[in-house]
């Protein structure tokens, strides 16, 4: 019973961390979406972060940077709860790199697949010009116009993308802790945050090509049926290697920062309550 309570508590900490990090980095998510979905040959200026910021300011003002905030909060808090809960449940003190990778890989993959319907709504709401009213009204409109299965559009791509990120992130994060902060050294907020930022940078670079496909699939950017590999090939043929880096700049800030904030909060509270450096 005590163990179950501890696992649930890790989930609550994860949801709280996701709440704080989402509020902090949502503008970067909107900028990234503009760069991925809106930029093309006629809107080449939107391939840069500066051009995308200018576009949002001109068309929607400062409020435009917080498009999709409500579904983002619902989705990220739900995914954060599930991820940290599952990670706490499946991990143990005596494990190796491959076990760390697989534990985080599957925990993130499952949590993201479950919350994909909310992510689809969030993704569309974050694109300037999309008429978002509320979570339930948008869900109802999508269900009527595109069918219930559309809520899992891009789900496989999203699960691969975030699972890959999470697996790499957790391995690098733990290894940096082991190098710079031995278990007997106690808790260090600066080392924890720095480890998260470095791990986030590595994971973001590795997973970003899948983010391009995920965002475009969920905003109906594509009008044909292709496999993931065919989409990669098409992107390369039409946009070159640069096509796989669109939106990378704001994501290189947002993704590491969001995960660092979440892990820092979870680690800090675990240290206060349980006196451990790694409680999951």
UniProtKB/TrEMBL annotation:
Short name of any one Pfam family annotated for the protein: Mito_carr
Key word Transport present: yes
InterPro entries (UniProt xref): MCP_transmembrane
Protein name (Swiss-Prot/TrEMBL): Mitochondrial carrier protein
Alphabetically ordered keywords of this record: Membrane, Transmembrane, Transport
Keyword Transmembrane: yes
Solcar repeat residue intervals: 5-93, 95-179, 187-272
Protein family: Belongs to the mitochondrial carrier (TC 2.A.29) family.
GO BP terms in the entry: glycine import into mitochondrion
Alphabetized GO MF terms: glycine transmembrane transporter activity
GO cellular component terms, semicolon-separated: membrane; mitochondrion
């Amino acid at each position: 019973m005590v163990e179950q309570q501890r696992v649930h508590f890790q989930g609550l900490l994860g949801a709280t961390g996701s709440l704080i990090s989402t509020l902090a980095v949502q503008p970067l998510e909107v900028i990234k979406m503009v760069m991925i979905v809106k930029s093309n040959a006629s809107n080449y200026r939107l391939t840069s972060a500066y051009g995308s910021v200018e576009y949002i300011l001109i068309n929607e003002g400062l409020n435009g940077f917080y498009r999709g905030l409500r579904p983002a909060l619902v989705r990220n808090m739900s995914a954060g709860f599930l991820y940290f809960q599952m990670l706490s449940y499946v991990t143990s003190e005596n494990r190796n790199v491959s076990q760390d990778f697989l534990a985080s890989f599957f925990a993130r993959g499952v949590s993201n697949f479950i919350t994909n319907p909310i992510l689809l709504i969030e993704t569309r709401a974050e694109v300037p010009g999309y008429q978002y009213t509320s979570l339930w009204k948008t869900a109802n409109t999508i269900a009527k116009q595109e069918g219930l299965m559309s809520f899992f559009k891009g789900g496989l791509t999203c699960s691969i993308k975030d699972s890959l990120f999470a697996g790499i992130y957790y391995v690098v994060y733990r290894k940096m802790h082991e190098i710079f902060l031995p278990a007997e050294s106690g808790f260090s907020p600066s080392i924890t945050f720095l480890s998260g930022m470095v791990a986030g940078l590595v994971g973001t670079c590795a997973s970003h090509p899948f983010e391009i496909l995920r965002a475009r699939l969920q905003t109906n950017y594509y009008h044909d049926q292709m496999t993931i590999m065919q989409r990669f090939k098409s992107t390369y043929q039409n946009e070159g290697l640069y096509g796989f880096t669109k939106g990378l700049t704001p994501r290189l800030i947002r993704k590491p920062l969001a995960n660092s904030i979440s892990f820092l909060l979870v680690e800090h509270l675990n240290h206060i309550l349980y006196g451990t450096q790694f409680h999951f």
